[in-house]
Structures are given as C-alpha cells and as structure tokens.
Amino acid sequence: MLKATLRSFLAHKGRLLLSALAVLLSVAFVTGSLIFSDTVSRTFDRLFASTAADVTVSPKEDLDEAVPSGRTATLPAALAARLRQVDGVAAARADVKVNGLTVVDEKNEPVGPTTGAPTLGNAWAPNERSPVKLTSGHAPRGPAQALLDSETAGRKNVHIGDTLTVIAPPGSFRVRVVGIVTFTTTNPGSALLYFDTPTAQTKLLGRPGAATGISVDAAEGVSDDQLKRHVAGALGAHTYDLRTADEQAESDVEQLGGFLDVIKYVMLGFAGIAVLVGVFLIVNTFSMLIAQRTRELGLLRALGADRRQVRNSVLTEALLLGLVGSTLGLAAGIGLAAGLIELMGLLGMNIDADEMEIGWVTPVAAYVVGLGVTFVAAYLPARRAAGVSPMAALSDAEVAGVGRPLRVRAVAGGIAGAAGAAALAGCAVSGQTSSAASLLGLGVVLTLIATVIAGPLLVRPVIRVLGGAFPALFGTIGRMSQRNALRNPRRTGATAAALMVGIALVGGMSVASESMTASFDRQIDKTLGADFVIQNSNFQPFPPEVTDKVRGTDGVGLVVRGRFTPVAVRLPDGDRVETTAAGYGPRLDEVANITYTQGDSAAALAGGNLAMDRDFARDHGVRVGGTLPVEFPGGRSAELTVGALTDQDSAEGFGTQGGLFFGLGTLERYAPGGQDSALYVNAAGGTGDDDLRAHLEETLDPYPQVQVRDLADYKQLVHDQIAVLLYLVYALLGLAIIIAVLGVVNTLALSVVERTREIGLLRAIGLARRQLRRMIRLESVVIAVFGAVLGLVLGLVWGVCMQQVLALQGMTALAIPWVTIVLVVVGSAVVGVVAALLPALRASRMNVLAAIAHE
C-alpha cells in the first residue's frame, strides 16, 4: 500500500501542485510574521538593554496619555548631584529627552521622518551607553548649535554649517548644525537632534534646571537591585518612578509592543484567510481525485485492501502534500520576513537581515499549520474513499457525490444558519457594546459555516438564474456550460466557497466603513460650526506662538482654543475611569453646535465645573450638581462639579470615553504646562472664507506640521483614516481571490480530465475548439459569480449587524456601498474568465481520438 500510495502521489503531482500553493501561502504568512516579529523584538531588546542605565529615575506618572497633551513631565536636574553622593552610585546624569519636535531646513522643508516615527530632541551627554557617537564636527556649545543624526542628514541632504529651525513645545528657534552623530545600534526610524544641556532645558522644556529623567550607574560590585534600593532610600520610593536596566528595557519593549502586535496580527490575519480558503481548495481537489480514481480504489479493495488501508493511503498522500507545502512555505516565509525587513529599512527602521531570528517555534508552527490544514481538509474525502466497493472496479462509478441526497447538509446547514441568525438578531437588538460584539462574532462564524455547508443546496436555484441568459446569448454552448456547473452541486459549492469567504469579508467591512464615514460626516456637519480648524497633521499639540500668530492674522474674528489632558474620575458607583478630557476656551457655542440635555456651555466651562455625556452619566449614577473627584497628571486632584450633560459622546472633540470637557481655566489650573491641540477660527465680518484661508496658510507657512482645514477637509481626514482599514480588507480580499483562482483553475483542470471522453465525443460530432474554450469559460464565470453573490449577501448581512454595534458608540448612519458591490460582481466575472484560460486551452488541444479512447 505504501508503494501504491507513493506511486499515486507522484502520478498526480501536477494536479496537486495548485493545492500545494495554497498550503505554501498559508505557511509563508504564519512563518513570515513570526520571524519578522521575533527579529524586530530581539533587535530592540538588544538596543534597550545596551542603552538603559543601571537605574533610571523618572517623574511619577499615574495616568496614561492616550491623546497628546503637549505636557512634558520633568524633575529637578539637581537630583543628579544629590544622587552622586548616594552609596553605590558611580555616576548620575540629568537627561533631557523631548518627543514630537518639528524641524525644517532653510527652504522650510521638513527634516524629520515622514513615516510616523518621532523627531527627538536630547541633551548631549555622551557615555558608553549612548546609542550614537560623534563622527564629524564638534559637540554643541551655546543655544545656536546642534548635532543631527547621519541618517536624517543623508536622507534630507543636510550638512555641517546648515541652519535648521526647531519648533519645540515652548516655541521655535534656529540652530546651526555643527556635528553629525552616527547610530551605534539599531535606528528605530527616529530623527535625533542634540543640544548642550542648558539649551535643551530652556529651549525644549522651557524650564532651566529641569530634566526628564536621571540615569544612574552602579559602582563596581553593586547590583542593579541594590542600587535601586539605595536610590529609593535617598529619594523616597513614592516620589519618582525607579526602574532597573531590565525593568526599563521591558517598559520600552512594551511601548514598542503595540506597533509589533499590529504587524503580527495583520500578517496572521492573512495567514488565517489563506488557511481557510486553502481548506476549500484541498477538499475539492482530493474529492475530485478520489472520484476519478474510483475504479483504481475499487481494484485495490478487490485485491484485498481494507477500508483502513484505503483511508490511510489517501491521508498519506495529503500529509506528503502538506510536508512539501510546509517546507516550501517555510522557505517562502523566510523570504517574506527578509522583504519586510527591507521594507522597514526603506521606512527608516534599519534592521540587519543577517541577524534574522528563527526560533524553534517557527518551523514547528510551519509544519503544524501545513500538515494540519491538509490532514483536516483531506479527512472527509479519505473517509469517502474508504467506502468504495470492490465492485466499483468493474464499472465507471464515481464517489463524487453526484445524485446523492443533500438531506444531511440541509439539516446541518439549517441548524447552523438558525443559530447564526439568532446570534445576529441578538446583536442587532442588544443595548451593550460588549455583548453585541460577542454575538456578532458568533453570528458571523455560524452563518459562514451554514453557508459553506448548505452552499450546494443553493447551486441549482441560483445558477439557473445566473446562467439563465446563457442559452439565449450563446446558444447550445451556453446551455451546456450552465448544465456543467449544475452537474455536481457539491463540487460547484466547494469551488465557489473559496471566493465567497473573501467577498463576504470585504462586503461586511465595506458596509461598516461606509457607515462609519457617513456617521462621522453627519456628526461633523451637526457639531462643527467653525469656519476653519487649525490642527497639527499628526494631532500633536503645537507651541503657543502658533496660537498668537493665528490670532494676529488678517481677517480672523474669533479663535477658540482646545487642548487635551489625561484624567481619572472617581464615579458614584465606585468605578475609577481613566480617559481623556478636553478643555475649551469661552464662546465655544460660536464654533461648535453642542446638544445639551441639561445645562449649557456657560455651566460646562465655568471654573471648577465639567460636562459629560448623558449616557455615561446615567450608567454611573452621575447627576448635574454633583461633585466628582478628578485626578490630573503630576499627582494633582480636584473636586469638580457636574455642570452640564451632553448628547454627543461621539461628536468631534468629544469622542473619548465619557465625553468629558471643561473650561481652559480649569484645565490650566490643575494640569498646567499643556499645549493647544486645535484652534477653531471664524472669519471677521467682511472677510470671505477663501481670503481667510489664504491669510491663515500664509501665517502658518513657517509651521509645516500645522494644517488649515475647513469642513470638507476635516471630513476627508476622517475618510482617509477609515480608508487605511479598508485597504487592509482589500488586501485580504486580494489574497483570498488569488487562492480562489487557484481553486477554480484546479477544479476546471480536474474536471477537464474527468470529462476527457465527453470532450472527445463533443469534438468528434463537430464542437469547435473555440466553442469548447467558450463553454469552459462560461462555466467558470457562472461559478465565480455564484460565489460572489453568496459572499455579497452574507457580507451585507454582516455589515448591517456591524453597523448596529457601531450605533451603540454613536455611529448611527447606515450606508451601503453600491458601487463597490457592482464592482465586486463584475470583478468576479473577470476572475472566472482568468481562471478558465489554462484549463480551456488544455481542453481545446486534446487529441480527439485519444480523448475518445480515454479510460
């Protein structure tokens, strides 16, 4: 049996090639994501471990800053001198590190990275743990000198002697580049500028004698933990955050972890789609191969092979296929990871491909995925093969399931479909976001399973409709192609299922994203009343001089400032909620249309008051007039009075949990040191919008990071952000379509082999080669469109239910992207034509007499 199995596998290797490609793609995405994330993680582990001080002293921050406030936490730089006297301390340095600078050259062109990585300003204090070394020029001396990293200098063509403008939180200033520093470790993609310590303190922090942290080195023989205890004893354990080198490196890795997780989960999403669609392809391939080998299997049974041997023979072929696909997929995954590393290099993150990290988990995962997919997919066809009777050797019988009743599928599909529909209905009527999302996930899984199981039941009624015009348009050829698609509903359903999965995904996400876009558009129209909004392009705050210059611009009538701060609120029901609150200047009603259910803007912005969303207030037992303990950054706290309740939790500017906001006076009293994040500007009387925009853009020309946006621009900004998610979905669809095309090609190719005698007879009675190719193409088109129709129906149902979940977060508009739906249907027909090209060509080149004589 082993010899027969190996002979059969080698005899059908051409037919199995496309199935192996599906396994290869699945494994490649799994292994590529693991290798890439492991390599980046290990690279940054080394970076953080080599640059972290033995003990780092930082300002204590109890609140996470989800939205940038522009506030930089500091501590006294004099602590360094105090710590040098502590037992076990060899050295202590005051650090100044400020994130979010904007740097422009003499042509007012940005010098920093454009890929989202930050531009960092630092005090120049070189030591053996510095990530850079001075390679040309000299150290900065005085407020007009700076160093720039070599990669940024090379990318932006900056040289020693050039003048740069630095836009920092306290304001902008000009410096001359007097030296170039080169990274000694991995460059995470940032641009680095170095100033002497007094300049960094005054120009970056705005506070002479301040620092953002203290780096402490241990004396010989003193461990990091011992040093941390000594420092804590000198400073007080609860005054500052103290971290050993390992703890600091771990903290840095955690901050980077979000970025790495996004990449890993995106790639694992691709792997999941490849696995799911590949299962359909492999099931179909093995089902057809077994159908074509019915007489061969019957002969083996007649010669004495039992059911177990036949089943194991088919499963062995599947495992051989999985072994080949996994090995090739592992190699492809290494190449994919290398390509991602190169891509990161183009984006400014230089990772050495020679240090690629391939842990033991990666090859294990590769073979578990590859062998598991093929084994699971081939199990049902193998069981069917084991049921072949020895008498089949004497007939032309097939076990492909033609004519077999579909009652079991109908029952199983009906049960799964009913459960899925109930879950989706529960999602639509649920009033809690968490439960609605859970029911949505369950409903999506169950309805997908139900559609896959019951798909063959839908083949005949749907394809009769989809192919109903074929006889009229293409005559006998059209009728034959339609009947070929109807001949084996199981095969047609399985072939179409691969395409259905991808299209259902893109259909559902398209509805959700279109609904999100429409909801935001409606909310922006409803809420935003300003002529223009001034904001940083990456939503970072901007220095006060921007606000001053906007106020002094010709044609400006009203400017209302907005800024953000992290807060923690103790609520009457005992909950402590950390969120982001907004602070707004007076006359807010003239630039924003806020719907109040209780109170008004005057009460909301009054000193010592705050406003919040009414639903949030109701859920936590908050009433107007009540007081709430509110914690601010830096350990400050206050008892604020609830002055107003609003009905727009998801409105522009109020989209954080609770919709908390208060007056700028309250914010500046309890969270000083922040910066404006937005300016809402109205034109003065007699000034047109176009004129005001031109004046504002001229004023803000020295600040390339700051954008002038009107209502349409603001909507486009939201559209672009949502489009990023949609592009990912389209990429997933593209992968699903690639594998689905392989499945259609495989099905048609095997179908051509299966119908060799039939094709030969058709050719003998006068069917032309061109007609034969058209017949196969039409069959492919109708199968592809069938899959697209099922996918779109399923996707639309999912999308509507997703919108119901979004409605619980205030995004109540439902929008159907009809253009996308039409394009998907047309595209599926094109997919069908492309998938049929090779099988149709092969069929048309058959020798007529050899085809008629084919067994």
Automatic annotation (TrEMBL):
<protein>
    <submittedName>
        <fullName>Membrane protein</fullName>
    </submittedName>
</protein>
<keyword id="KW-1003">Cell membrane</keyword>
<dbReference type="InterPro" id="IPR003838">
    <property type="entry name" value="ABC3_permease_C"/>
</dbReference>
<dbReference type="InterPro" id="IPR025857">
    <property type="entry name" value="MacB_PCD"/>
</dbReference>
<feature type="transmembrane region" description="Helical">
    <location>
        <begin position="437"/>
        <end position="459"/>
    </location>
</feature>
<feature type="domain" description="MacB-like periplasmic core">
    <location>
        <begin position="492"/>
        <end position="698"/>
    </location>
</feature>
<dbReference type="GO" id="GO:0005886">
    <property type="term" value="C:plasma membrane"/>
</dbReference>
<feature type="transmembrane region" description="Helical">
    <location>
        <begin position="360"/>
        <end position="382"/>
    </location>
</feature>
<feature type="transmembrane region" description="Helical">
    <location>
        <begin position="493"/>
        <end position="512"/>
    </location>
</feature>
<dbReference type="Pfam" id="PF12704">
    <property type="entry name" value="MacB_PCD"/>
</dbReference>
<keyword id="KW-0812">Transmembrane</keyword>
<feature type="transmembrane region" description="Helical">
    <location>
        <begin position="818"/>
        <end position="838"/>
    </location>
</feature>
<feature type="transmembrane region" description="Helical">
    <location>
        <begin position="318"/>
        <end position="340"/>
    </location>
</feature>
<feature type="region of interest" description="Disordered">
    <location>
        <begin position="107"/>
        <end position="126"/>
    </location>
</feature>
<feature type="domain" description="ABC3 transporter permease C-terminal">
    <location>
        <begin position="270"/>
        <end position="390"/>
    </location>
</feature>
<feature type="transmembrane region" description="Helical">
    <location>
        <begin position="724"/>
        <end position="753"/>
    </location>
</feature>
<keyword id="KW-1133">Transmembrane helix</keyword>
<feature type="domain" description="ABC3 transporter permease C-terminal">
    <location>
        <begin position="732"/>
        <end position="848"/>
    </location>
</feature>
<dbReference type="InterPro" id="IPR050250">
    <property type="entry name" value="Macrolide_Exporter_MacB"/>
</dbReference>
<feature type="transmembrane region" description="Helical">
    <location>
        <begin position="410"/>
        <end position="431"/>
    </location>
</feature>
<feature type="transmembrane region" description="Helical">
    <location>
        <begin position="265"/>
        <end position="291"/>
    </location>
</feature>
<dbReference type="Pfam" id="PF02687">
    <property type="entry name" value="FtsX"/>
</dbReference>
<keyword id="KW-0472">Membrane</keyword>
<dbReference type="GO" id="GO:0022857">
    <property type="term" value="F:transmembrane transporter activity"/>
</dbReference>
<feature type="transmembrane region" description="Helical">
    <location>
        <begin position="778"/>
        <end position="798"/>
    </location>
</feature>
<feature type="domain" description="MacB-like periplasmic core">
    <location>
        <begin position="17"/>
        <end position="231"/>
    </location>
</feature>
<comment type="similarity">
    <text>Belongs to the ABC-4 integral membrane protein family.</text>
</comment>
